[in-house]
Amino acid sequence: MKVGGQHFRTIWLRKEDQCVVQLIDQRFLPHRFVIEDVSTVEQMVTAIRDMHVRGAGLIGASAGYGMYLATIEAAAHGWFDQHLASAAAQLKATRPTAVNLSWAVERQLKNIVDGRTAEEKVALALRTARLIAQEDEEHCRMIGQHGLNLIQEIARKKAGKPVNVLTHCNAGWLAFVDYGSATAPIYAAHDSGLRVHVWVAETRPRNQGSKLTAWELGKHGVPHTVIADSAGGHLMQHGEVDLVIVGTDRTTYTGDVANKIGTYLKAVAAKDNNVPFYVALPSSSLDWNMRDGLKEIPIEERGAEEVKHADGWLEGRQVEVRITPEGSPAANYGFDVTPKRLVTGLITERGVCEANEKSIRALFPEHGP
Ligand code: MRU
Q1: Owning domain of residue 264
Q2: How much is the pTM?
Q3: Among 229, 249, 256, 287, which one carries the catalytic annotation?
């Protein structure tokens, strides 16, 4: 997507030195656009864990490049297998919920093993990291095309009035390599000349909605309004939401959806108000080993400080303030699980399907009947 007229992806290799990964450090958005250089596994681990990069697809792509850096380090030290195993373990331990992370690390390990020399292993890791990123981008583009049909259908019924889409957190291009999952259909609709307006739920505690989604949509010229997280139900009751599209960090092969905390409540409100609730995801976010999302998906718990504090822009600098009474404990559950019964459909790179095992397997038959 474009920032200041220049096309950016969220992660890439430095042109003059292919041993350095560059990424947009999202901790500073929307106030400052900062590019970070990452040249060691340790730096990549920090970037994922401390959320310089975040969002399922981008976490996967970052892990892919992290493993590429691991092969460069291993080639320099000479202890290949040990170093790769340690890098893989460190990367996987950074964040538990998005399945793209372990998917990317495992894919790298499987490919790197085919290299006979250190040089071959580095080359294979680079090729795989690039492929993971390219596929992520292409899959999100395709999600946009399939989701566009849904928005067009609603637009026809609204006879020129804007289609109101509600989204939660940031499943935009910042959460992937480009396009985004939940936002891809929105960008495709906007670019095709349809009138779309987006309700952006702010997404406490880290405010990925009000900081990142609002910034992205604004840069692309998509009309949007930031709302408090709890306002979604009210808007649905008053006919102000035509459809909900959210992303996911992990969806079971049976259709249960883990996404940013607060998603489940929006799905409940959507069901109660007959508002279609769609989840957009590339297949890298499907977990083919988990059947029961509520029981099996690991839910990340982050530091209480994120709930107790908020940050913003004051007189030219980013400041953080405490917003809870001193001494009040806080808990910070990062994700929740929306059961399949509340999901109208899944928008994938291969098309739209129902959130159940039969429909998901029909789109991805290579994973068995
Ligand atoms: O904690 P984050 O910011 O990494 O959370 C991920 C998300 O942005 C959301 O849960 C998103 O809706 C799905 S990831 C594309």
Answers
A1: 143-367
A2: 0.96
A3: 249
